[in-house]
Amino acid sequence: MTIATTTHLNFRGTARQALEFYQGVFGGDVTLATYSDVGMPAGAPDADKVVFGQVENADGFRLMAYDIPGASEDPEATAGTTSRENGMTITDRTFFQSLRADSLDELTGYWNALADGGSVVEPLASSAWSPGFGMLTDRFGVTWVLDVKAEYAG
Asked: Are 98 and 111 in contact (CB under 8 A)?
C-alpha cells in the first residue's frame, strides 16, 4: 500500500497568485479550475476564484490550494500570525508548512525565494539540530519551517 499526503491551503481570493508564486519557487506545473469551470454561473460572485488548484513538480513537491467562497482577501484572517519572542515561537496558526532540503545551498535557494515579499520569523542559520534552520511567513500568509536534513548518530 502507498499513501501520500498533500497540504491543501485555503486562501481568501489569492489562490491563483499563490500557486503561480510557488511554481516560481519550486518549478513544476500549475493545474487549476475556477468555480465557473465546475458549474457556477460566470457572473456570480467568486465565479473566477479557484475551487481546485495544484502545483506539482517532478521531484515530488505538491501543494494544493483553493479560494474560500465569499471571503475577503485578508490573509491574516485565515492564516493567523507567528512571531518569535524570548526564544519561543508564538502563534495562533493551526499548522506550519515544513520544507527539508539535502544541503544548505539547496535550502538557501528556497529560503530566498519564499522570503521575497514575506517576513522572517527566525533567520536561516545553523542550529543544534541542523546545519540550516529558519522560519518565515511568505507573502500569502503561509508560515514555512525550513531546515537541512541532518545525519543523526545512531
From this structure: no
Per DSSP, the three-state class of 66 is: strand
Alpha-carbon span 8 to 51, nearest angstrom: 11
pLDDT of 153: 41
| pLDDT in the model for residue 89 | 73
pTM listed for this prediction: 0.86
Write out the three cell numbers for 6.
Answer: 498533500
H or E element in which residue 69 lies: none
What whole-number distance in Å separates Cα of residue 9 and Cα of residue 21? 14
Say if CB 135 and CB 122 are below 8 A apart.
yes
How far apart are alpha carbons 139 and 143 in whole angstroms? Answer: 9
